[in-house]
Each structure stands twice: as structure tokens, then as C-alpha cells.
Predict the structure of Hydroxymethylglutaryl-CoA synthase.
Amino acid sequence: MTIGIDQLNFYIPNFYVDMAELAEARGVDPNKFLIGIGQSQMAVSPVSQDIVSMGANAAQPILSEQDKKDITMVIVATESAIDSAKASAVQIHHLLGIQPFARCFEMKEACYAATPAIQLAKDYLVPRPKEKVLVIASDTARYGLNSGGEPTQGAGAVAMVISHNPSILELHDDSVAYTEDVYDFWRPSGEIYPLVAGKLSKDAYIKSFQESWNEYAKRHHKSLSDFAALCFHVPFTKMGQKALDSILTDSASEDTQARLNEGYKSATDYNRYVGNVYTGSLYLSLISLLENHKLNGGDNIGLFSYGSGSVGEFFSATLVDNYQDHLDVKAHKAMLDNRKALSVEEYEKFFNRFDNLEFDTETELEVEPKGNFYLKEISDNIRYYDTVK
Ligand code: COA
């Protein structure tokens, strides 16, 4: 019996700001953002794209009418919840037209939550061979204008259909999770932006990775040479590289070191132009790896998920033969290429409008592809969605 990722897609907002321009506006050497942090562009959220519309937009292209009948559980992983009670999964379930006899709920543990969602889906499906689970990771990463975290913002959603006999990745029963109570990044209820201990957050990430990986290698008698590539949670591209560097020691052969370093470059190609998408970052990185790197069916991929606070998890999966046929590379490249560049001044306007929920639908929908979902209005604290005509 194999269970895993049958379909995989992402959505990002149609606006971005150039990181060199942002650096200049902030009086910072552009190389700090481009090289030190490793980001070239940053996705900017319009008010009309929240976690619900982005999640639905990520899922819509990969769901057939049959999938909508087979899906019996919808899980949304997010740390940008728009409601403390009602789960965004319920709204996404409605927008996508999934059959009504389904469980829908939200999961939270900073950027980590999509991983337990996938693991839960895998276990849930064991006695249900005909059913499927839709897992969505959707977030708007925001630290505030002129804040330390500003260059590591972003927005986007990743949708994954988990099923038996998957077409893309078979998940193994080998995950190792590591939990440590640490205040490296948190957002107390009522705060718009998270609080971050920047240096601690980098150290906590690396420690969590090393603990998870070392325990994984010990329990399963594995070494780095067993993996064709490794994927990481990518708050910014330099972060995963630092974690990788920390274990690429002399014990790994030159071939292994070169292979994993090359793989990491491919696995962060998309993230470098999107920024942090919190819960979806690892899975955007996975798509980036699969669409920008030469791999084969049967190859083993190692994945490291991290959520501040903190929980880390290392797990692995095997690529299915002809997985390439189930990825829409052309659509993904077009989505990245067709975005509208914003000047820093425009980005700041977008940013403030998002906080104040000031709609400017005409400007925002000009570049949104027809048929996509968007947040139309909020009335009496109820969010109303529509599709672009
Ligand atoms: N050219 C090249 N590199 C440069 C540079 C330049 N001109 N100026 C600085 N750098 C490098 C620094 O040496 C540093 O690299 P290092 O980490 O390898 O030492 C890197 O750029 C970042 O510089 P730093 O001084 O640490 O930046 P910062 O104090 O502004 O904070 C973050 C960076 C990531 C901590 C901050 O953006 C943040 O808090 N982000 C949100 C939290 C987060 O994403 N945490 C990650 C774990 S989840």
C-alpha cells in the first residue's frame, strides 16, 4: 500500500517588489538582501487575496469533478488565520464545490502545520482506499514596513491532494519530529505582526534541523548518500542553505555534497522570487525542486519542515515514475513571470491597504487571471468571495 502526494500546485499573488529596490529605499546594501538573505523578489498581497482565496486558487486547477466527490477531508494549515473560530477550510470547501460529507478544519504551529496535516491525512487514508484528502497551506507573511523581518515577507498557497497510489510522491512511515519550547517567533492574539527574535530564530531552526536529522539517521540507519535531494522550510533561501551546510561535513562524499548543494539551488528557485509563504514554504520548495531539477522515479527526497515555537520534522518520500506528467511547469513559470512589479512606494500603499482592509479591486483585479477567486468585500464581518469575470 502506498499513500502520498497525488497532485501538487501553488498560487501566488500577482504583484511583487524587487529586493534591490527595497534595499535601496531602506538604505541597505542590496547584497544584504540578494546574497546575505538570498531573496531577489517578494510577493505582495493585495487586499483581494486572503488565505481563503489563495488556497482555493491553488487547489482549483488540480481538482477534477471526481476528486470533489472523493475528498472527505479538507485541512488548511495557516498562521494567518482570518478568524479565531471559523476554519478557512470550510470556506475553501464551499468555493471549490467539494461534496458536503467532509471534515474541514484548520491546523496551527507556525510554518510547520502543513506537515502534520499531511501525516494526519496519510494515517486517515489507511482504512479508506477510495477517499482523498485536500491539504492546503496558505499564508500571508508580514512583519511590517521598515521592520527587521521586512525582506523576508511574501504570500502564497500550496494545495496537495493526498491519496492511495499517488502520482507524484510516496510518503514513507519514517518521520521524526522534534519539539522545543522556544520564543523565536510568535504572534500573541490581537497582534497584526509577529514578534521575532531574529538571531535566535536562525539558531533555533538549525538546532531543530540537526536534532531531527541526527535522530532520523540513527533510527533508520540512513546517511546523506541515501538522498537524491533534500528540501527545507525556506523562510529565505539562505536559511535552508545554512542548515544544509551544517551537516555537509567531511563524512559526506564530494559527490553527495555537490548533489545536495545543486539540489538545494533548484529547490529554492521559486522561493527566491516569492519570499516566505510560511506553511507553504517547504512545499513550494518541493515544487521548485521537481520542476527545476533532473530527478528520476524511485529517487528518495528528504524533507525538513520547521515551525517556530518550535517543531521540526524530518521525513522522506520516493518519487513516482513519470511524476513530471503531473506538474504544470508552464503554468507555474507563467504565474511567476506575468506578475506586476510594484515600486517601493506602491508596495507600501498595498501593505497599508491590506492592514486597513481598504479595497481597490479595480487595480488589483486588472492582473488577476479570469476564473480566479478573490475576496470581494467584507460586510458585517462576513467575507464574500467571487471569481474574476
Ligand atoms: N553583502 C552580503 N551579505 C550581507 C551584507 C552584504 N552587504 N550585509 C549583511 N549580509 C549578511 C549577513 O552577514 C548575514 O549573513 P549570515 O546570517 O550568514 O551571518 C545576512 O546578510 C543577514 O544579516 P543580519 O545582520 O543577520 O540581518 P538582520 O539582522 O537584518 O536579520 C533576519 C535577518 C532573517 C533575522 C530577519 O530578516 C528576520 O527576523 N526575519 C524573520 C524571521 C525568520 O525568517 N527567521 C528564520 C527562521 S524561521
Notes: The CA atoms of residues 6 and 167 lie 5 Å apart. The first helix runs from residue 19 to 25.
